[in-house]
Amino acid sequence: MKKACIFILGVFVLACGRQNKELPYLGPHDVSAAGDTVYHRIPDFSFVNQDGDTLTQQDVKGKVYVADFFFSTCPTICPLMKTQMLRIYERYKDNDSLMILSHSINPRYDTPEVLKQYREKLGVHSTQWQFLTGTQTDVYKLAQNSYLTSALEDSSAVDEGGFIHSGAFVLIDKDRHIRAIYDGTKEKEVDKLMADIDRLLPVR
Amino acid sequence: MTGFCLYAESCKSDQQIRHEQYVIAGKNLYESHCANCHGKNGEGLRNLYPSLDRSARLKDTEYLTCLIRNGTTDKDINMPGNKDLYAIDIAQIITYLNERWGEKKMTETEEVARVGC
Fold this sequence. Notes:
heterodimer, A: alpha+beta, Glutaredoxin, seven-stranded mixed sheet, two-stranded antiparallel ribbon, 5 helices, globular, B: mainly alpha, Cytochrome Bc1 Complex, Chain D, domain 2, 55% helix
């Protein structure tokens, strides 16, 4: 009986501990010459935003941000993703420690002007939410290698609008480490994402 | 009482029964072909995708048939078409749209089939 009690207590402590545990660092880890763990980090990037301005890693310096991949004419999961991303946008609208970067995976069609119009129709005005376009190779490489998610052109994917991409929302901390990946089409996942954003943001 | 209900049920006209079938089939088609953008409850998404609720266009079978079948790129709108849908599918969708957001009038397959576009 005593053993059982200790066991139950142990499980309880473990369960509590897990809740307060910090978010993991995702992606491949390296070890530096000094023997320290080096976490996967989003490399430097450069894209053009909806206003035709260049946006780089400097613009997210010291900020927590959420990244996703979409295209403006996507009839399948993008509307669901944008509905959920709007919840995040509305909740953190006045907190400039948080940014959102939405990358178009169809840059041939999604020019800055198209993205600007898309953004306006969504009712997004704050600079916190940026819509980005660039070369197709750059954005696919970024999705696959940097953000560990997928984006591909596939002309056989007629119902998907000719592209295949995941509905992932990737959470990046202020040091450009990936801390979590969520399904951006699901309300419950995005609830969890927002709770995790709160854990990463500096206390105000 | 049960007998009465059964009796009342069996008194539904063929027309009524078909109307109900169209609404149910139309709901499934709406949810797989339209709801991602226009929303499960027809609410749309801000100014990006229009709300369907009480849309004046719901009465216009010809307009809806062509829009659902071919989509549009008019006036900055970018709605994809649904070439794989048959006239009966489109009629069921239009019937469902009117059941939920319009005047509950049934659209017959023949009406859709007559539309040339």
